[in-house]
Design a protein that fits this description.
Blueprint lengths: L3 H10 L7 E3 L5 H10 L3 E3 L3 H10 L1
Parallel strand pairs: 1-2
Length: 58
Amino acid sequence: MFNQDAYNQIKTEIPNQVKIIAVTKTKSIEDIKQAIKAGIKIIGENYVRREKNRRSSC
């Protein structure tokens, strides 16, 4: 589950030039969609094949 409250809190605590990278290692497609909807723009994945499959689903 994507934690919107934690994301909002982190954004207030870091300088604007610092970027947040979401790592989707064990997250579902729905969790990833929630993160994107919340404003996450940089997403990392360990496995290229998995990333390609997830990208086409989001």
